[in-house]
Write a structure and sequence with these properties.
There is one protein chain. By secondary structure, the protein is an alpha+beta fold. The protein folds into two domains: 101 residues, Immunoglobulin-like (Sandwich), CATH 2.60.40; 154 residues, C8orf32 fold. The strands form three sheets. Strands 1, 2, 3, 4, 5, 13 and 14 form a seven-stranded antiparallel beta sheet that branches. Helix 1 crosses helix 5, helix 3 packs across helix 5 and helix 4 crosses helix 5. The longest helix is centred in the middle third of the chain and has 15 residues. It is globular.
């Protein structure tokens, strides 16, 4: 599938900012299941590329002059391949065992343990059936409600209140995998959808877990499915903090407002 992507992120500040540094993870990963046909990143200031320990391409954007706004724009085309949710391991990055690590956003507490215990019967049938049951269970237990959580909310909090967004679904999934001792990782990216409610017309997030004899397999509780060729992978990490599309710090600036516009279009295959 050929996908055309345009993504604009605008930050506005109530007071001048004298210095800012942003880590931008908005470049598609170089993998066998997707091929970048063209890609352009437009940012102010100097953008220095580097590859982090997860194998993600990151651009560090530094502004040293006073500014009251920040605009980041990416656009391009990506060709994806249907793999029915299986992500071939291309080497590099961290070993699977590293993704057993607990983080503040994927912390395991009694809420997570009790929820994971509901799916013990499925575990007797194998890891894959248990993970699919877990994905469906999270979709039922955590309603998709934008604004009920924030970027610092952990999976346990979203599960306890019964609402959240795609990143919360991924964090709950990963935390439950920690209970079971299954390596799992967070994925950020784009999703092409024709959903009329438009709830995924922005960057998306899902999870991947290691399944014996298959490798990494994707699970998207928000849509109750494994990733298809409609998904584009930008970054993988332990949780949102390591895969956030844009994350940074600044001096000054006062109150911050952010607006994001994303368009993902399916192009006719050539």
């Amino acid at each position: 599938m050929r996908l055309s992507i345009e993504h604009q992120t605008d930050y506005g500040y109530s007071a001048p900012t004298v210095y800012s540094i942003q880590y931008v993870r908005l470049s598609p990963r170089e993998e066998s299941i997707q091929r970048t046909l063209s890609w352009r990143l437009d940012t102010p200031g100097q953008a220095t590329p580097w590859r982090d320990g997860f194998g993600n391409l990151v651009h560090v954007v530094v502004q040293t002059r006073r500014h009251d706004a920040l605009h980041i724009h990416v656009s391009g085309e990506v060709e994806t391949t249907e793999t029915h949710g299986i992500v071939p391991e291309t080497g590099g990055g961290l070993p699977p065992g590293a993704f057993l690590r607990e983080t503040p956003l994927t912390m395991v507490d009694d809420t997570i343990r009790d929820f994971a215990s509901r799916f013990e019967a499925f575990r007797a049938r194998g890891r894959l059936p248990a993970l699919h049951a877990l994905m469906a269970g999270i979709s039922e237990a955590v309603a998709y409600v934008p604004g009920d959580t924030h970027v610092h909310s952990c999976g346990s909090e979203a599960l306890a209140q019964g609402s959240g967004v795609c990143q919360d679904h991924a964090h709950v999934f990963i935390a439950c995998c920690r209970v079971w001792g299954i390596p799992a990782r967070y994925v950020s990216g784009y999703l092409h959808t024709s959903a009329e409610d438009g709830r995924h017309l922005s960057t998306h997030a899902w999870a991947e877990a290691l399944v014996e004899d298959l490798g990494w397999v994707s699970f998207d509780p928000s849509n109750r499915q494994s990733a298809t060729q409609a998904y584009v992978r930008l970054a993988v990490a332990f949780d949102y903090q390591g895969a956030a599309p844009v994350r940074g710090v600044r001096l000054g600036g006062g109150h911050e407002e952010m607006n994001v516009r994303v368009q993902v279009e399916h192009l006719a295959d050539q």
